[in-house]
Amino acid sequence: MTKLTRRDFLVSTAAAAAATTLSGSAFAAEAGTKLNYTPEKGATLRVLRWKRFVQGDEDLWMANTKKFTEQTGIPVRIDNEGWEDVRPKAAVAARVGSGPDIIIGWFDDPEQYPEKLVDVSDLGTYLDKKYGGWYDVCKKYGMKDGKWIAIPLGVVGNALVYRQSMIKAAGFDTVPKDLAGFLKLCQALKAKNTPAGFAFGHAVGDGNNFAHWLLWSHGGMLVNKKGHVVVESPETVAALEYARELYKTFIPGTLAWQDPSNNKAFLDSQISLTANGISVYYAAKKSADPKMQAIALDIEHAHLPVGSTGKHTELMQITQMMLFKYSKYPKAAKAFMQFMMEADQYNPWMQAAIGYVSQPLKAYEANPIWTSDPKATVFRDSAAIMIDNGHAGPLGTASAAVMADYVVVDMFAAAASGSKTPKEAAKQAAERAKRYYKA
Length: 439
Prior knowledge:
Number of domains: 2
Helix content: 40-55%
Order of helices and strands: HEHEHEHHEEEEHHHHHEHHEEHHEHHHHH
Strand content: 5-15%
CATH architecture of the largest domain: 3-Layer(aba) Sandwich
Largest sheet: 6 strands, mixed
Distance between the termini: 36 Å
Radius of gyration: 21 Å
């Protein structure tokens, strides 16, 4: 992992000196960002992105977009869609050949229709050289056959979010780092009527992140390196059995949870422990309600426990900018993508959202947001420790389709709820996966 000092950060972004408050409402005047592309005459752009969970993210995104328009004269329309709606809308756009110029999607969505996307290798290479290099996992997601098919915007970090006072009341000083200890903690929290809650529903981020961590932490995997389906294994059964015991400690209703669900349950003090981005903490910290302020002071974050593999096995939501070939203004679109990734815009954006989206480029590790508030630090290393959703096989059409079909999530939901035995759930998952992974 690249180690840059705060001084390195300040020097590299001196031109940006964007004097950003955490609310993202104040900026210093800038001379503008030098763009590598000459936009087409009369260009206009439409960008579709996911709805914010952190207000500072949206505020700065729109402010940066306005700056781009002021500098280039190019009008940009921003459409915000629910997290679950972005993927199907992108798929429709790819199929019919019409829609937003740029769509900011999830995971390996670009692998579903690479032939419909503009080669952005020039931009990917430029950013790589200027900002300390891409993390390996970001290269794997953004590239195909040696070419960049999308530009990773960042990683919505995922970590354990917990109430320190409730953890201590249950008899623990901190969250155990092993699976057995973690289960004991959840059992103790339930006994204290301050249960945990993790999504087993079709939540793009929370459901996928949690289910894949459960599988991988036990040494299980959907496919092997050759892309052969191997999910029917003792390791998978062990993971499903563990999930069944863990699920008994959860608040009711997690089988239907989508991405906003655990945020609401946590801030309503219905649960004391979940896995999420920094959005829960952000909402509590920014609230004017004294009760929320008290919750913010009590919130802590930690990585998920390490299992039998002896290393971090966490899935997190990478989000990528895809430029579609049907765009009439690809040069203008590339200019917009470059503009948003440059330090003048990216650093203030990351600060305004207190690290909700963490960096895909190593130079941004030095952003002061990661040390100004220790509660944010755990999210700094998201791209450095995360595993891609194709693990252990290749990313491609199959991995993207399996993710979109929630095969792994449904397997855990079935076993945890008791609607299927662990072996039955694994068998069903294998059958579903083989529809996409064809030997």
